[in-house]
Structure formats: C-alpha cells, structure tokens
Amino acid sequence: MNQLFARIFDTGQDSNDIHTAPSSPKEIRFPMDKGIAGHVASTGETTNILDAYKDDRFNRDVDRQTGYTTKTILCMPIYIRGCIIGVVQMVNKLNGVFTKSDEEAFETFAVYCGLALHHAKLYDKIRRSEQKNKVALEVLSYHARCSEEEVTECINMQTPEKIPGLTTFEFSPWSVEDTRKPVYVLYMFKDLFKTISTKRHEERFDLEYLMRFTLTVRKNYRNVPYHNWIHAFSVAHSMYTLIKSTNNTFTPLESLSLFVACLCHDLDHRGKTNSFMVKSDTPLAAIYSTSTMEHHHFNQTVTILQHEGHNIFNHLTSQEYKEVLGNIKKFILATDLALFFGNKARLKELADKKEFVWNKEEHRDLIMAVAMTGCDLCASIKPWEIQLATVHVIFEEFYAQGDEEKEQGIEPIAMMDRDKADQLPQSQVGFIVGICLPCYELLANILPETHPMVMGASSNLKKWKELAEKQGAEKETQSEA
Predict the structure, then answer these.
(1) Higher confidence at residue 233 or residue 306?
(2) What is the DSSP letter of 108?
(3) Confidence of residue 2 (pLDDT cuts 50, 70, 90)
(4) Any idea of the CA torsion for 409, 411, 417, 423, to the nearest 10 degrees?
(5) Average pLDDT in the 276-300 region?
(6) What are phi and psi of 87, to 5 degrees?
(7) Which residue of 139, 182, 350, 466 has the smallest Cβ count within 10 Å?
(8) Catalytic residue, candidates 227, 269, 295, 297
(9) Which helix (H) or strand (E) covers residue 75, if one does?
(10) Enclosing H/E stretch for 73
(11) ∠ CA(152), CA(156), CA(157), 5° rounding?
(12) Burial class of residue 438 in the structure, from the number of CB atoms within 10 Å of its CB (0-12 exposed, 13-18 middle, 19+ buried)
C-alpha cells in the first residue's frame, strides 16, 4: 500500500522559549488513504478544517505519536509538473481559524516547496550520475575482458563427458586446479542448458559464448583473500549439486538463473562488508543505500552479458531472457545476509503451518532465496579440514577490514579485530548455530535431499565447540596460575 511520510516539522517555537512543544518524531508514516493529509494527497483538494476532532477524515494516530492536540488544519497539495508529490500542512492557528487570506499565502508557500523539491530531486540525480561514473571508471581501471588466448586455451582443455563425485555436497572445489575450474563450470553449464527445450539441440547455447562469459567472470573477481573466484566456483558448485540432488524440482530457467547467480554473486567484491562501504562514504554506497555490494554484483553481471560474444542467453526468447535476468537479480540480492532473516522467517512460518505450495511464485522465490544463502555459506558444510582452512582465510579478510577501520578511528566488531583472534572458535559456534544450521534445517524440511548440508554443518559445529571448550579450559588454567 502507498504511504505518506513526514520528516520535517516546524513547531514555530523559539529555541529559547521555555514553553517548548513536545519533541517531534524523526518520521511519521501512515497509509495514503488515511487522514486529512491522505485525503489531500489523493484528491488534490485544499482542505481547511475548523475542528479536527469533529472531522471523520482526521487521523488521531498522528496526535498520539507527536503529543500534539490538533484543533485547526490547513492542508494543501505540493505539485511537480502537474503531479502531486506531497502535501504541506499547518495546524493550530494561534488566533482563531485559517482564513481565505491564509489559504492564498499558504498556496504561495506550497508552490515554493514544489520548486525546492524539484531542484533537490534534480541535484540528487546529478549526484548519483557522478557517483556512477566514478564507479565505472574505477571498475574499468581494474577489470578487462578475457583474452582470445584464454578462450583458445580453454577450448584445448576439452570438457569431460563425466566428472565423478561432482554432485556430492562433500566435493571439494578447492581440490580442483585453478586452470581447470572454468572447464568444470562449462561442464555444469552444458548440463543445465540441456534441460531447456529449443527448436534445435545445438541452439541451446554457444560454447564459445559460455567460455568467454566464464573466463570474463573469473577475471572480474578481485584478488581478495576469500570473496574471490574460488569462492564463486564453490558456491556455484553447491547450487549445481542442490539442483541435481533435488531431481529438477526447479524449472530449467530457474536452475540456470540460480547457477549463474551463484557464479556471479560476488563479482568485483572488494573484501569489505556493506556496513564498511556505507561508513566509508564510498561511491558505491552513494548509489546503493541498501544491499550495496549485491546491487553492484548484479550490475557487473549485466555488464559482462552485454560484452560482445558473452551473452550466454542469446538463444532464449525475449520473455525467457527477461525472466532469467529478473531471477538473477532477485537471487543475487538474496545473498545479502540482512535479507536472509526475513526470508527465513516467512519460509519457516509457511513450513511450520504446512502451507508451503510449490505452484505459488512467492513460495518458490522464498525457497530459492534461502537456497542461495545456503550455498553462499557452503564452506560450513565441507569436511572439517576444508572448513578450518577456509575459516582462517575468511577471517584474514575480516581482520584486514578491521585494520582499516582502526586506521579510520573506528572500533571494529570483535569478529573483525585481529587482537581478538582467540574468540574465533566461539564466534564460529555462534555463526553456525544462529545462521547456518537454521538455514540448512529449513531447506531440508522442504527439500529433504539437502539433508547432507545439515549433517556437514552439525559435524563442524561439534568440532568448533570442542575447540572453544578447549580454549576456555586453557584460559582458566592460565588465570589460576
């Protein structure tokens, strides 16, 4: 439902006046069809109310939030280019009620407000464009497309007919040589494209397009400790395994979208969290105020697809292409952990009430969003030796961010502070208990074939608990000594 919200309040009080009005909230929100302001916003009619509490349209919730007692109201619409973009309202005239003269004067003020807001909007557009240009230049200075030599080298490697053990959750993508990883990606791509029906078998995909896309995606991952090409390959493999293990529960286009989203979900990651990007006032944060890096990862995906010879979806219909691109955006955004908790809560409620229905698009979107999170966190389900090594790599990236925060005079959270590295085992216990296991248990509830993910996370949780307990015992011994 459309909403109105108020952020600017002028109480008319002098700062030195001892009779101060109740403090106004930072923001008031209410439905567009509610209250005098809602009426004016909907109809465009100037409204002059002599006694607010005798008017059925008056929304008393506003008084409850502000502490005011509204008596008289004069409310007018604010226009920009003939469209209503807001309302301006005066309440409680000091002497009597609002007159026709007040209405004329206030109308001039409303026009001024419209002009001011219009110019503010234009300024914001210019500012955003400037920041986008900065990001584009920054990316261009770092990245490039794959070379034809790389494509030729990939062709000469040849894609195997079968890769034993590939569709197991225990499979270690880290065991695959870096030069062979693109070949494995091509194998998985070809397998997923085969499920898409077309007029002719050979028109499902262009092999060279797949190669260029894969190699350019690899090139667009930065050399950071963890959120790099190896991580992308690992996450994409986990999604491929999930898709194959669940016996094509997802449609061919959904499966392809999920796989591409996983492969591209951290493109151009700088090894920093969204929070850091916002606090550091980076150009990216100026463009995307929420899910900063995830929006950037998706835009990088689109940029690569637009390169000549890189559009791996060139044999899809326009409707299929639109569907796949829309899915990829949703799925990449779903990897923002800030969104996971809401997705998990909604899906869990459906599962607990046994109301989950596969033929409802909203329900399918939820299970796929949670699957994206599960695959993104797949390091937590791998055999202990891999899990342990990977966690140390992850924390090296965290500590690097913490070091930068300290240089900026910001106190990093314990997880990012290398001076608190002794808290790592307990931190992992909290992470697996609070995020990983709830995610995998929910997935397994709806997709039983994913139960090995629960088993892997549970096994690693036991190991981290043992380390945490051992560390705690050693600290006690040292303190007693």
Answers:
(1) 233
(2) H
(3) low
(4) 160
(5) 93
(6) -135, 155
(7) 466
(8) 227
(9) strand 73-80
(10) strand 73-80
(11) 120
(12) middle
What does the pLDDT average to over 351-372? 97
Q: What are 74's two structure tokens?
A: 């004069």
Residue type, 321: Y
Both tokens of residue 10? 């002028």
CA 138 to CA 135: how far, in whole Å? 5
Q: Which two tokens stand for residue 124?
A: 């914001």
- Residue the block writes with tokens 């790099």: 228
Tokens matching residue 452? 């090995």
Residue 385 tokens, joined = 């030796």
The structure tokens 């607990």 sit at 352
How many other C-beta atoms lie within 10 A of the C-beta of residue 246?
Answer: 17
In whole angstroms, give the CA distance from residue 94 to residue 162: 83
| Sequence-distant (≥ 6) Cβ neighbours of residue 278 within 8 angstroms | 285, 289, 292
**Catalytic annotation present for 231:** no
Burial of 252 (0-12, 13-18, 19+ CB in 10 A): middle
Residue 214 burial by CB count (10 A; 0-12/13-18/19+): exposed, middle or buried? buried
